[in-house]
Amino acid sequence: MAATKFLIWLVQSIFLNLLMVGDELDEATRERMQQRAEQLSQEMARLLQELEQRSQEQRRQEPRAQEQSGFSWGALLFAALQQWQFWAIAGVLVLLLGLCWWSGGGGKGAVSQPASSSDEESSSSDREQVEVEEEDDDDDADDLGRFFEEHIQWPVQNLATECQVVKDLVGDLLRVLQVLLSNSFFPVLQPAIGVGSAFEGWSPDEKGIIYRLLVPLRPPRGHTFHLELGTAGEMPARNFCIHVELVCTCTREQLAENTLCFLHHPKEDLRRNQDPSLLRTLCTGSYLDAEKTARCFQQLVKAAWVVLPESSNHRLRVLPSSRSCKFQVTKDGKRSLLIEMIFGVQQGDSGIFLSSQTTEAVSTPSTMWSESYAVAEVKFFRHMARHAPRDSFHLKCLQLCARILVGTSFSTYTLKTVVMHLLTTLPLSGWRRRDFLLRLQDIMRYLRCCLEEKRLDHFFFGNERVPEEIVLPPAFQAAEPLNLFQSLAQDPATYAEALREFDELQDRLTRLLIYGC
Questions:
Q1: CB-based contacts of 176: which residues, under 8 Å, 6+ apart?
Q2: β-sheet bridge partners, residue 242
């Protein structure tokens, strides 16, 4: 059954490729189709020869001569029916030969003659017949999409429900922490923002899902944050330092009782009557330290957990993490949720943050904060969810393609970037279930073209197709696109390996579509 549906897709692809060329094929296209037909003829001959050899072997093994003849023909027929490749090639061969005949003029004679009066009288019924056939084609395509939806073993997930559970739990934790830190000079915690694949609505695997949330930090009273580029003159710079400065609060002392100005009050008074400034707790020098911030909040989460009602029937286990607060929550020893709180500082009023979590493979100084686009990406997929058809399969496409990346150098971020570009290039109406296979084709073709050009543009830099509701820093709009495949252009060995892995990805995707797992 899977092979049959796969062949339907193959036939549809042939027709689509034909339509893309135009109504009248050029000589080169006809020649290529004829060559392909000849190749398929040779393949059919080979399969027939193999089947005949099998039947001869079976005849030699059969002891009774009278039953030998009937059994050999039955075995030959049974073997032929088992060889779906034989029937596949036969069907595609007939299709190609028919298309070659039609493109050469054999199928044009009837439509090239002038219309007669009887033709004019029947034009209305012809149009109705065409409409019916188009509806049938749509139904067939939808049936094919429904088949793959049921045939493929999708991860069993309930992301929407679990994401809401996680957001509620982290929200309760942050409210307790805000009370505990209300009289201190730690960064001011803002409501958490769900980021990553789970909060975007997809995940490549049902096991090991990490629910990530970015917790925005704002400077406490008497302090201010200044963002400094990690490398001067580099645009866009991926790493920043957050410079912490003290500001005068003398004019606000009457509004904030018992608050002393760090700049103008005697140090002895400050030491006796006020908590230390942020510079003395979570900074290295005058820069906010991501690792100190993570360690501090790991301890604070443990202290806040015992206050929550969930602590009575849930168990919290804080996990090792140098630049984030990662913990596991287990209910009744069974259901577990893996949660990671990342800390970030917003760039202006945009959807771009400086994140405590780094994506670099090499060691990053603790005072370096990586530029994160995770919040903007979540907003992008929410925008698409609002405007896409109800049965849109863009997340299914992303989820399926992400499954074949395991063990390769291609990252899910690369794949997500490809899908984001296609979502803003192709009409959203073309991402329905019936278009599932076509969009998978587009994703693989786009990735292949990027590999050949050794260039994949970052989605948010210099891209006019970014939805207007996603606010970006002004420098992003005027910036040159950032090439995510820069390493391929610089290293021939890496490029050759990427091409080899891409061929492997295509094979994996084909097997996944045929076998469903």
A1: 304, 307, 308
A2: 227
